[in-house]
Amino acid sequence: MKHILEELETRRQTARIGGGQRRIDAQHARGKLTARERISALLDDDSFEEFDMFVEHRCSDFGMEKSKIAGDGVVTGWGTVNGRLTYVFAKDFTVFGGSLSETHALKITKLQDMALRNRAPIIGLFDAGGARIQEGVAALGGYGEVFQRNVVSSGVIPQISVIMGPCAGGDAYSPAMTDFIFMVRDTSYMFVTGPDVVKTVTNETVTAEELGGASVHTTRSSIADGAFDNDIEAILEMRRLIDFLPLNNTDGVPELPSFDDPDRYEMALDTLIPDNPNKPYDMRELILKTVDEGDFFEIQAAFAANIVTGFGRLEGRTVGFVANQPMVLAGVLDADASRKGARFVRFCDCFNIPIVTFVDVPGFLPGTAQEYGGLIKHGAKLLFAYAEATVPKVTVITRKAYGGAYVVMASKHLSSDINYAWPTAEIAVMGAKGATEILYRNELDDPDKIAARTKDYEDRFANPFIAAERGYIDEVIMPHSTRRRVSRALRRLRSKEAETPWKKHDNLPL
Ligand code: HXC
């Protein structure tokens, strides 16, 4: 009996060493943790239970039958993050470069099936060289099986991908279908085809970092939702993110104990808006002063910064915030900001996370670059997302809400539940100057007349009351009471029920 117990322990030890100490040392020398070290940092102490530790590949081509390593390049299992069930798989780069074989894929799909059946989030930690070259189509099929489950799980359980090393070929597509992708700066990169293939096909010379590093994907391609300086920081931030997320699409938002008074006034907000309507201010200040304990998890902070998206809490419960940022491009909506906002709104709606929208938007960005780039279609994504979202929606207009952008930013007309405006709100088709220049074109050579016309327009429209008279604004509120008003509104909207007609799915303008 003792001998059998010892044998189990020996087998476990062998499996845990993966591709061997030399490769583990190489991993550490690159500033990366191993798959098991990452999992142990991610999950609560002693909560991880590993599955399929002894699985080996079945390939016998290219002499592979002589080279088998228990676990086959991926560590899978379940555990908890701050007590809440979480499924995790981590690619083990020390074993065949973390590449995906048929059996490696089976380990992941088994985990995906369990996570979906038991309705809990799944996190993938990526550090891998793509399809196992020796396995050919069996590896490709394995990817397909993983992708299919990514899609079936989408909108049912949160799926998060963290890129912590190479992530090439098939390994890039599975994260692309998950809800969030995060990267580690300098040690991770993500692309469909690497620099060598790029050189052969397009004759471009490019490094892996230039092609698919964290800075590319967080600032240009918008593939990644954020980047962190090292493995530990990335993993700790993932624990923070999971605390904000529901376990699944029926579980409801998590509720954490909060010691921050929901009725807290923020008197500084009464002077947040500058006297000059063309002067910017930091919308993030409003978000941070509104949320519990100033705790805000921003999504895509480095991309399309003219719109801010992220998670905070009110009365301990998760809320998704979307806000125009006057500090960047005056908070205008362009194609990138629209796509960013739309994806975030849709995530919140999938998982029943209420949405709070802070509006200060001068309109959609004009110009050929935007129109040729499909602004109409991308702007429509944000409009579509807000209109179809049935979660509680609360909007606060702080200053400008002009033109189509007024409608798009969670207006009453797009089924928003409660729409507040600060007294400084200006809700109109466009700014006073632009409006008078169009309406009184024949008076343009008389500056005094134009100034008087502009003043007239401002007096009439540069306020929230025309909209309030029509009921498009439910209440004009004092800026300092924003947290109190929004918290109360969301409390009263908790039992909201919204009916939508049966459909297979909608046809979002892609
Ligand atoms: C088998 C692989 C492998 C792979 C790496 N290894 N990639 N084994 N299949 N795809 C092995 C190496 O042989 C090596 O084994 C170990 O992993 C570490 O690899 P190195 O090359 O020494 O590491 P490094 O220099 O850091 O380079 C990492 C890398 C590179 C950039 C990932 O290995 C690489 O380019 N690999 C191939 C990437 C690729 O083209 N994959 C196929 C994509 S096509 P030893 O024994 O020496 O430790 C694809 C199609 C799917 O994925 C499509 C689905 C839709």
Brief description of this entry?
This protein is α/β, with parallel strands linked by helices and 510 residues long. It has 19 helices and 16 strands.
Please characterize this protein's 3D structure:
Strands 1, 2, 3, 4, 5, 6, 7 and 8 form an 8-stranded mixed sheet that branches. The longest helix is centred in the first third of the chain and has 17 residues, at 137-153. The protein is of the alpha/beta class. Helices cover 38% and strands 18% of the residues. Bound molecules: hexanoyl-coenzyme A. Hexanoyl-coenzyme A binds next to helix 5, strand 5 and helix 6.
The tally of strands reads 16
So what's the overall shape? elongated
Q: In percent, how much strand structure appears in the residues? A: 15-25%
Q: Give the biggest beta sheet.
A: 8 strands, mixed
Q: Which small-molecule species are bound to the chains here?
A: hexanoyl-coenzyme A
Q: Report Rg.
A: 26 Å
Give the helix tally: 19
CATH topology of the largest domain: 2-enoyl-CoA Hydratase, Chain A, domain 1
What is the total number of structural domains? 3
Strand-helix topology:
Layout: H1 2-16, H2 21-29, H3 35-42, E1 49-51, E2 74-81, E3 84-91, H4 102-117, E4 122-128, H5 137-153, E5 159-168, H6 170-176, E6 180-184, E7 189-191, H7 195-202, H8 208-212, H9 214-219, E8 226-228, H10 231-244, H11 283-290, E9 297-299, E10 307-314, E11 317-324, H12 335-350, E12 355-361, H13 368-372, H14 375-388, E13 393-402, H15 403-408, E14 418-421, E15 426-428, H16 432-439, H17 447-461, H18 465-469, E16 475-476, H19 482-492
Parallel strand pairs: 3-4, 4-5, 5-6, 5-7, 6-8, 11-12, 12-13, 13-14, 13-15, 14-16
Antiparallel strand pairs: 1-2, 2-3, 9-10, 10-11
